[in-house]
Amino acid sequence: MSDGLVERGPGGLSTGLDELRAAVAGGPVAPQALLDAVLTALDPPRTDDVTLLALART
Fold first, then answer.
1. Domain around 10
2. Helix/strand/coil (H/E/C) assignment for every residue in the chain
């Protein structure tokens, strides 16, 4: 992930990371579905960089 996903708003980085953890913990197992759920939950601004990576163990 990049800072554009989590470092924003009045809560800053700490709040953003907490929100990311919650979105991942409550999200689906499949990598693409998890990434979609995280983006939906965090709703990052379209004016900042956002990078996500998910790995699946097979």
1. 1-58
2. CCHHHHCCCCCHHHHHHHHHHHHHHCCCCCHHHHHHHHHHHHCCCCCCCCCCCCCCCC
